[in-house]
Known about the structure:
By secondary structure, this protein is of the alpha/beta class.
Amino acid sequence: xxxxxxxxxxxxxxxxxxxxxxxxxxxxxxxxxxxxxxxxxxxxxxxxxxxxxxxxxxxxxxxxxxxxxxxxxxxxxxxxxxxxxxxxxxxxxxxxxxxxxxxxxxxxxxxxxxxxxxxxxxxxxxxxxxxxxxxxxxxxxxxxxxxxxxxxxxxxxxxxxxxxxxxxxxxxxxxxxxxxxxxxxxxxxxxxxxxxxxxxxxxxxxxxxxxxxxxxxxxxxxxxxxxxxxxxxxxxxxxxxxxxxxxxxxxxxxxxxxxxxxxxxxxxxxxxxxxxxxxxxxxxxxxxxxxxxxxxxxxxxxxxxxxxxxxxxxxxxxxxxxxxxxxxxxxxxxxxxxxxxxxxxxxxxxxxxxxxxxxxxxxxxxxxxxxxxxxxxxxxxxxxxxxxxxxxxxxxxxxx
Length: 400
C-alpha cells in the first residue's frame, strides 16, 4: 500500500476546527500553529458523542473520528501502526512489577513512533492546503516526514538540522525533499528553518505547536489502550523533548474516557536524562515556567533525540498534564539509561534507542523508590530503535 493510498474506507467527512486553548479563537480551514489573535496554542476538538473506533487496518480510518481530517479522500498513510504490546514478564519480575507493558513502536517502518506523526501531520497539512513546508528536528521527526513526503510528489519538504544531528536524518534523495545542514546546534537549526520559511513565504510547521503532530503521536496510546483492554494503565511513562507524545497521550486518555473506552486516569510520567533535564528541574523547583537557571545552553547527553535544552514554550503544557494526572517528572543517569537498554535486550529481546531507555530507566527507578507499586499496570512507550547512520548525500550547507 503506497503513502497516497488508504484502505477501502467509507465516505467519511466531518468538520474540523482548530481552537485556541487560551482565547477560544477558531480557525476552520487554514493551517496555523499559534492563534493569530493571542499566539496561544491551537488544538482540535471532536464531537465525542458521535465518535467511534472503526474496524479497519488503516489507523487513519480506524480513528478517523479522533483525527484532524475533514474527509478520508486525501490521506497519506506510511503503513505505520499495529505495533506489539509486550508484557515484559522477565524484566518486570526483575523490577518487582507484575504488570509491566512495553509499547514497541520500533515495529513502525522507520523504527520510530514518529511515523505515526508523519502520516497524520502530512495528511492534515495537505487537507489544509499546504503543499510545501519546512521542518526542523533532532532526526526522528524529520526522517519520518521525509519518508512520507518522498512518496507524495505533489508535496515539497525542506528539512533543517544541526551538524551534530545530520547522521540521524535518514531520508531518500528525491526531488521533493531537501536537506539543509547548519553549522549550529538544534536551536540554531530551528531558527535557520524559521528564517528560510519566512523568506520564502512557506509555513514552518511548528513542532509541538503543530496539532497534527500531537494528534498522530496519540495513536500509539489509543492502540495500546485497546490492546490492554479490559485492563487499564495506572501509570504511563514516556521520554520527552518538547512533550508532543505525552500531550497526545493525555488528550487520547481524555477522549477515550469521554467515549467510555477508559474509566480511570493514569498517572503520567515525563522522563528525561539527568544531563539535559530542564523540565525535571523546573517541576521539582515548583516552577510554573522555565527559568534561566533551568535552561541547558549547550545540551549534552547520551540520548540525542531528546536533547532540548530550552523547552520554555511547551513546559507549561507538560506541567499541567503531570499535575492533572498526579504524575511526575523523573530524570536518570547515563549508567541507568544504558542498564535499562541492556536489560530490555537481554530479558525481552527488545532493541530500543537510548531515548526509549530513558523512559524504561525512569520506570525502574520509580519502582525502586515505591512511587510505582508492584501490582500497578504500567505502560511504557518504547518510541523507537537506533537506526544505522545513513545521512542523505544531497545536502545544502547553511552557515549561521
